[in-house]
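Board notes (copied after class):
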Amino acid sequence: RASAAGMVPVYDLFNHHNGLRNVKLTLAEDGVRLVALEDIPEGNEIYLSYGIKAASTMFRDYGFVEPWPQIWTWTDDGSGDRYSFVLFPGGVVAINPTEVILKEMIGSGSVDGGLERFQERVREHTRNLHHDDLVRFRNASRNLLAGLPTDAVDDGVILGELQNKREEMSSSETRELVHDSIAAVEYRIVFKRAVEQAVVVAEEAIGGSSDDDHSSREL
């Protein structure tokens, strides 16, 4: 399956990973071609991209959140402002990511040293955000977490209870319902941990920023 190409046999077998993408599907006169974007050693996994999508969309449409890059977005209830950030390995966060960063993160970890170079660029991007933008982001993130009925620790307890409950059930239909609940709680934990890390990064950037810094355009 591919939205622009129709039904493509075998294509569905490949996994999505925006950070490690190493192939792309192209249209040709005689059909479609899967093109390697780099040398892929024998035995290495082939990764494609389902597109640049928020983690919530990935979870809703495909049932998972990729390890990285994770794109998180939300709307502040008080101001109505939209906030976004991208989480990378090692707790590196791109606050208010530009379109350029979102495009260049695709496949950034598929070549030796590529991820490290891209992470440094992300750090520089966040450090160069305007002080006021960083403060707004930090405050909105804190308000978001404070307004939720549970925190990540609470969700961890709930998750353990649901997992135990699933093991005790004999009906496959009931187990499936609990499985869906487990997936939802796991998603909540990943989201809250990501926002917590974004707050830490924002705090660090605020400590090193000045009012003379240039503001980055939000998406």
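Comment from the instructor: The first helix runs from residue 55 to 62. The CA atoms of residues 58 and 100 lie 21 Å apart.
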